[in-house]
User: Fold this.
Amino acid sequence: MSTNTELIRTSYAAFQRGDIDAALSVFHPDVTWTHPNGMADYGLGGTKKGLDEVRAFMARARTVFSELRQEPHEFLESGDRVVVLGVLHMRGARSGVAGAVRMVHSWHLADGKVTHFEDLHDTHDVRRIVEPSGPQHRPRLDAPDRIIDAGLGFWTAKVLQAAVELGLFTELAAAGPLEAEQLRARLGLHGRGLRDFLDALVSLGLLERDDGRYRNLPPADTFLDASKTDSYIGGLLEVASQQWYDPWGRLHEALRTGEPQDNIPEGTDGPFETLYADPERTRRFQRAMTGGSTGSIAAIIDKIPWSRYRTVADIGCAEGALISRVLRRHEHLTGTGFDLAAVAPYFEETASETGVGDRMSFQPGDFFTDPLPQADVIVLGHTLHDWDLDTKRMLLRKAYEALPEGGRVVVYEALIDDERRRNTFALLMSLHMLVESPSGFDYTGADCLGWMAEAGFRDCYVEHLAGPESMVVGVK
Assistant:
């Protein structure tokens, strides 16, 4: 295998790991970097000169594509030139649509460094991914039935929440297909409305009914069986029913006054201190946070180049789901969970149950008054949106201070799309902050990129994780 081809292969491999420094190490400091002009209106076309402009190009690309992966298939070398044929896999950050586009990359090298790079691909195909058309990508309330469905959406929500609170899916997972009468007896129900309740869950695609016997369909079996702790999201639905349903009924009042509707008495401690004063509410909330993070945690396990690092700290760690799952996958890592002291028993319980207690530890603290734990990677998951803008910026500054040179901060939330048109869930989550917190709000990926740059981070990018959630990553 020739030296030039090997050199180019190492650059592709580094890009795949997310190791931008290693990927760019093969480039000459004054490299010329050219892309098709068809994406110039996105800041991605034309020619860039020098590594600083290349890094800026990459940061910009991460705001346009939530996923971007190069898959080289064939390397053709002639003298100081290497041509690579392959496929670009991408997902539009605003659209959420994924697709693949053929690519041709031309590399020119001199003295072991890349002096010229050109990317050739059909930008029409790229724009179809970035800018999909059609209502399937942006649901509209454009007919009376759709408006009614949205207005009565709490009907569906309460059916699902009741099923979780009654333990229906967990019972079916353990006992197998059961008739309605068997479920009535096992769950202690009255019987009136039971068939309607069960058949509504059939119509929602969560249960199946065969010869009068009900069983879980795969989504319910995977995500709503409480015994499957790594994938269970029912804790979030329990908290939604028991703690969030009533405050959301006063959304109109929150919009009139700007005040949260969570029934925390005026003059008492903040929302988390009040919440954690009740052990049962604390346990429910911990489970809810784990349930709401399940998809993102599964993605983060694979999307961060963990082999480069040795330590990770999760700020606002709840019961330690992220730390425990990352450590189980990456056995060289050790992790620290940082949260209020009341969370410690639930974190220790997770550490014991998951078998990585020797590599994960809990550090009690208050990030308003205490420094963050030092680590190679600091994660802020579903944390920034709880607070006002000054606190968001303060937390990113503290993360910067706690990281070593080359360390990463990872922020993950349901990010509002930059045009504030498509990610309905993220916009509703920001309204949830209005209802539940004194000053919290959700934000766009572009907002967070700006705050990270202010804190001193470089090579910042946005990448989709799962569902409505994405992460924003910055390097010190």
Q: What stands out?
A: The domain at 155-223 is CATH 1.10.10.10 (Arc Repressor Mutant, subunit A). The chain has 19 helices and 16 strands. The chain has three domains: 3-137, 155-223, 264-475.
